[in-house]
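Input/output pair, single chain:
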Amino acid sequence: MKFWQKLLIALAGLIVVTLLMNFIVMPWYVRHDTLVKVPSVVGLNFEEAKIKLDNSGLEGLQGDIRYDPSKPIGVVIEQNPPADQVVKDGRRIYLIISGGEQLYDVPNLVGRTLREAKFMLDQRNLEVQEVEYKPSVQYPAGIVLAQIENAGSKVKKDTRIGVIVSTGMDAGNIKVPDLTGKNLEEAKKLLTENKLLIGKVSYQPSTNVPLNSVIDQYPKANTMAKENQKIDVFVNREYKKKIIIEGEEDGIKEKEETTEPKDNNSNEDLKKDDRKKDDLKSTPQEKDKKNDTKIKPKDKKGDKKTTPESKPKKDSEKKNDDGTKF
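Output:
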């Protein structure tokens, strides 16, 4: 290759490099070396602040969330770098957002002592409201048995949480025993031992307990009752009712049928069925009378049907109009 050809190639390469520097590299370098004054975005909503920074050649990013009851949720309360500071074009500006007023979770205080409840609330910037005391069978004296604000709910700082504290079992009150699964006699005996009385006995079928055993009771077990208070019970029992059907030559037959009571809350139907049984046994049915008239002795083959003839009365047994024999 001749010298002048090599010179032309070198000049062409120099022209290309110069164009790249002038139109690509230098504009990019100059742009990133430009200084920008940071605008103030405090007090603006985060989205509004981000748009304002983008228009200034800066990038807005969300930073921490700070609880501030005086500022609405989502408002910029601080920026970094601060307003009016001169930074390079494209600089990231971190924005601290308001979380509004901070809310605190209410802890579960049931089953805790009053001292433990106060400590747990104090850790969450909450307080105990004026305490109410009530008797309880389930919780001993001094234990929180209920709270006004439900556990897990969110409340403001320094909110007062009301609690109800157990005083234990009141003197003179009686704890109702559990009668479920016991037969009626055992239930009566257990109630008598606890100075209680058997109340209304209702019958209903059940597969959960044996026959003639208590299915349920009212008042419920472990509740408080007064001395000589009546405890209603529901007993598992099947109902059997006799039905009279027509018989053949050998007379009337009886059939037993198991039925369920219509009213599970009352034993009146049982008493009515017992009365019906006695009436059926003592009073002949109309169907039975018809059967008695229809049934006649069967004639044997070859025998003539005979009917009883009325015998003439003896003369000696005749009576006159005065009623005397002659």
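Helices lie at 3-32, 46-55, 114-123, 184-193, 268-282, 286-294. Residues 3-32 form the longest helix (30 residues).
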